[in-house]
From TrEMBL:
One Pfam family linked to the record: DUF4395
KW Transmembrane (keyword) present: yes
Name the record gives this protein: DUF4395 domain-containing protein
Superkingdom of origin: Bacteria
Keywords per UniProt: Membrane, Transmembrane, Transmembrane helix
Transmembrane intervals: 48-75, 96-115, 121-150
Coiled coil: none
Ranges where the DUF4395 domain occurs: 7-152
Length: 162
C-alpha cells in the first residue's frame, strides 16, 4: 500500500485566494452584463469568458491533481521557496476533490447561462466565490469537508494513492 500524496496546505489556500479574487471579478462582471438574447451574445460576455477559464482551471487541477494546477505551480516556484517549511503536510485528495466540486459548480453555471437562465453565471460564481473565500481567508475548505463526509458515509472510498 503506497503512502497518500502529501501537499503543503498553504498551496491550496493560495490557490483559493487567487481564485476568490477572480470569481469576485466574474460575479461583478455578471451583474454588469445583464442578460443577452442570443447564444452568441451570451458566449462573448466577459463574465462568461472568465468563468469558462476558471472552470477549465478547476478541471485541470481536479484531473491532474491539486499540486499540478497552474496556481499550485506559481505557489511552488515563486512563493514556497520564500517561506519556512510547513509545520505539517496534508493529504492531497480532499483539496483535489474540492477542485472537482468547483468545476461542477462553474460548469453548471456556464451551461445554464448558455441555456439562457438569467444570472446563472452570477449565482454559480457567487457559490464558488464563497467556497474559495472561506478556504483562502480562513483555511476552511467546504469541498474538503464534503469529501470527508462522503468518505465517512461510504459513498466514496479513499484510495491508497490518494
Amino acid at each position: 500500500m503506497s503512502r497518500p500524496a502529501q501537499i503543503d496546505p498553504r498551496g491550496p489556500r493560495f490557490t483559493a485566494s487567487v481564485t476568490a479574487v477572480l470569481l469576485l471579478v466574474g460575479v461583478g462582471l455578471g451583474l454588469a452584463d445583464g442578460t443577452a438574447d442570443t447564444l452568441a451574445a451570451r458566449a462573448v460576455q466577459p463574465a462568461f469568458i472568465l468563468l469558462a477559464v476558471l472552470a477549465a482551471l478547476f478541471v485541470w487541477s481536479a484531473a491532474a491533481g491539486v499540486s499540478r494546477g497552474p496556481w499550485a505551480i506559481v505557489f511552488r516556484r515563486l512563493i514556497r521557496p520564500r517561506l519556512a517549511p510547513p509545520a505539517e503536510l496534508e493529504d492531497a485528495a480532499p483539496p483535489t476533490f474540492a477542485q472537482g466540486v468547483g468545476a461542477f459548480v462553474t460548469i453548471a453555471g456556464i451551461i445554464l447561462h448558455l441555456a439562457g437562465v438569467p444570472y446563472a453565471i452570477v449565482v454559480a460564481g457567487a457559490f464558488a466565490f464563497i467556497a474559495a473565500f472561506l478556504n483562502g481567508a480562513f483555511g476552511y475548505c467546504l469541498g474538503c469537508q464534503l469529501y470527508l463526509l462522503l468518505v465517512r458515509a461510504g459513498v466514496i472510498r479513499r484510495t491508497a494513492a490518494a
